[in-house]
Amino acid sequence: MNTEPGSVRPGGRTARVRAAVLRAAGDVLAEQGFAHLDLADVARRAEVGKTTVYRRWGTVTGLVADLLADMAEQSLPRAETGSLLGDLTANARLVRRTLADPRQGALFKAVIAAAACDTRTAEALHRFYEIRVAEWAPCVEQAVERGEAPEGTDAHEVIRAVSAPLYYRLLTTGAPLDEASADRAARAAAAAARAGVFVARG
């Protein structure tokens, strides 16, 4: 039977080993970047057998894929504030907190850089964002039902529009990601959604 890396026997020792290895992998990515991620070094940091890491994850890209899957699973669930702007603001502030965190921000920078030149890492990163966008898309769908946004609004595109300015700021300016930046991104996405910018055409 084929299983995804690290998914065998979700409880007990397997879960503890997976958690330790993924934590160690995240630390290396945050501290040194993708180029310095080495399975043997991760095993040493996690205090598990090197053979276990090679057998379960196989490659560095396999390990990164599992790390991103775990991060998607562990992310906080969406908020339900009762309004489109409230929900999008909650989403923007969550993204900002993640990217402004010294460890998490560095980790995402490393993975994004790796994804630019490694297909499997790019695929894993795309899956991560697909999961997170799908988690938050219902807040836009509910806004459409309440009449806050027009019928046909692409909920996924609205959610992407919230976080896009924050990632752009992180990767291109070096300026701090403050809460004002998050709130501005949410207001812009909400205003565009209400104006019908995200309604699918033709």
UniProtKB/TrEMBL annotation:
The keyword Heme does not apply. Keywords: DNA-binding, Transcription, Transcription regulation. The keyword NAD does not apply. Coiled coil: none annotated. Gene3D superfamilies: Homeodomain-like, Tetracycline Repressor, domain 2. It comes from the Bacteria. SUPFAM superfamilies: Homeodomain-like, Tetracyclin repressor-like, C-terminal domain. Residues 38-57 bind DNA. This is TetR-like C-terminal domain-containing protein. Residues 15-75 form the HTH tetR-type domain. PANTHER family: HTH-TYPE TRANSCRIPTIONAL REGULATOR RUTR, TETR-FAMILY TRANSCRIPTIONAL REGULATOR.
